[in-house]
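Researcher: Quick sanity check before group meeting.
Model: Go ahead. Protein one:
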Amino acid sequence: MEALIPLLMFVVVCLVLLLGYPVAFSLAGTALLFVSGGIVAGIFDTSFLTALPSRLYGTMVNETLMAVPLFVLMGVMLEKSKIAENLLEGMALIFGRFPGGLGISVTIVGMLLAASTGIVGATVVTMGLISLPTMLKQNYSPSLATGTICATGTLGQIIPPSIALVLLGDVLSSAYQQAQLSLGLYSLKTVSVGDLFVGALIPGLLLVFFYVVFQFILALIKPETSPAVDKQALQKNVNRTNSLFTHLVPPLLLIFAVLGSILAGIATPTEAAGVGALGATLLALTKKQLNLKQLAEVVQSTTKVTCMVFMILIGASVFSLVFRAYGGDEVIHSFFSTMPGGVFTATLIVMIVIFLLGFILDFIEITFVVVPIVGPVLLAMGLHPVWLGVMIAVNLQTSFLTPPFGFALFYLRGVAPNHVKTIQIYKGVAPYILIQLLVLIILACWPKIVTWLPEQMYGVQ
């Protein structure tokens, strides 16, 4: 009976989340509820709770997690500098004259924004406000327009610097060390956020490639869904063509400063995040898009997002501690080790569970609840930590698009015109969800797509 308690904990926390309670308090509250019940029943060892203060303190002083508020600040600051608006105007001049060209422009701009900000919500809202009215005005299919914007916005989940990869890297680092200890390896290696950043580069570009190919093929088969931009509209903006270079250079310099410093080994992700935050602030200043009022708004937005992430992390720490105290690790390990098919079946089940949970839970919730539970077991079975991290990241990317709780759908619904129906948004994201699953299958069949670049750069085996 006691072996079922960890499973019951997981079910209860999912039900509480579905009722709409805040994530952080749902995780911690459920854990404390089971602690109270266990103490009353005499089946919970209260000595486990003595590890809680050191866990919480370790979270607060974790240098890797310091990158979160800095990357958030960078993303929010770039919203104020109107980089997306300028880039989209320039890209539309290049590609807009071709069928499907405006959609391809949105994808390329979204990719650059993802590599600049790493924040899905900021990219979706910004692209929704700027590009959706233009696409609808140029007679794009509402489903294709909204689906393209939502899917492009989620590139910030996988293309570095991604906050999701920062959080996932921290969780996987702990899971990898636990896996090595369980195998009796005391000279511990680790996996860093930088390793995940490098491993996610090629898969991220692969996603962009498939998005563009899909839009190009659709424009050939059904040109009425994505017609070329009106020539007169292009002619009005022809004088802006010369300014494309000036619009493109600032974000590229910022991307080079952030990612280049990490890839070259000059800076850690946290240090590079500081460079990015400073660069975004200077960019907003040079474009005269920053004053005291806007600075206050940026700081408030950054503080809210950071507090949310850290509160969820604290709640998840409490939950995972109690889960392990009830022997949850042993239950999961026993379940996977006795399963026919070994590591393949175990990995497949975990990926399916993460995909299905993406319909009802946010990526942060899945990262902090599911990954610490299954990560050590899968890594102990011999999976490559960088490959596993990127696979989970791509899988979690679908959680932004899958109804009913896909956050990218909510973000776009909030800024889309009333005549764009919610069902059209749902239909629009369906092909992109299939593309993400196709990339997931490709990465599963050819793991070297993920692991080759980290092995070449850092010697990560």
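Researcher: Fine. The other one?
Model: Protein two, sequence then structure:
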Amino acid sequence: MEERIITSLISTSKRLMAWAEKFKKKRFLFQEIKKINEEYYVGIKGIRGVGKTVLLLQLARETEDSIYFSADSTLLKPFSIYEVVKTLAEIGYKNIFIDEIHRKPEWAQDLKTLYDEHEVRVIFSGSSAIDIVHCGADLSRRVVLKELPPASFREWLNIKKGYNLPMISIEDILDKAFNLMNKYGELHKYWMEYMEKGGVLYPEGGFYEALENSLRKVILEDMASLRDVDVKYETDAFKLLLLIAKSAPFEVNYSKIARELEISKGAAIRLVEDLSKAGLVHQVIACESIRKEPKLYLTVPLRKFFERKGFSVDVGALREEFFVNHVIWRYNICYLKGNRGEKTSDFKVKDWTIEVGGKGKSRYQRPDYVAVDGLIAGKGRVPLFLFGFIY
């Protein structure tokens, strides 16, 4: 590599690490990564806009002999990950932070070789679609892969509204709902704003334009690692996201997707799987049987994004989506569905059955707890917004 390229890499890294200093708040994953044994490389995957780049730069700032670069840099187009890292190692860098690593072909094989040579430690970020178990290189025992989910309600309040709120376990949320409601009740007023513009951390001006551009890149670029992406595939992916956004829970199944998109049921199943791996859809399985179809939810704030196409979203779906988007990252969750005519609670989390609904929601289904939209707590009723403090 030419000296001018190396000089530019070093200069850019210093500039970006200085820029990252203005981000005082850190995502929850920062501390988890800091605790990982230095014998391992670390991968951070996640959808665009959740803060992977800032997280890498924050980690680099607190690590000695570190340098950051993005794998999609035009300067680095002629070079492999291996070549770039070896050059940086030769001049003394011991900790290499690489953004967008999936943009380089053979990145996984390069990481395997670098790990086996034991000259540097690499911490990298990539698409939600990255899968080190099936990437063709034996990275599973060399790399700890962490997923950075959309910012939680708690993190969004800390980053965007200037709070300093702690994480709260689901046990404490259920056990101490009344006390927590009294302590944090003022924050409920931000719940709908979070559902509209939370989760991803784009600036206020041009928020939805940035989100739309990211969606297109996820479908056209990130999902290309899963299968060939053409114009019809892109169109079908957007149609499916729109279909979920317009629907109430349980209204979308594989048969309906196949019918609406004019594709086979098998293709519908594959498309749902692809969007799940890309981080745009959550599949919640049935508690009783894996043969039942999953319930499908969008990641925040996609439902409100698609509402701009000219329809009103189902508020029940918004509530369930908020609940699922927070619980699914920390706990096992499945949905309950009884036989025809039988009423059941919505979800099972660990050993608890939980119903999600509005402030007038009854306990007809006999759940252990009702997660209610509002500020009512006590007698098994838990304000829904408190689940946003789980991570």
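Researcher: One line on it for the slide.
Model: The chain has a mean pLDDT of 95.
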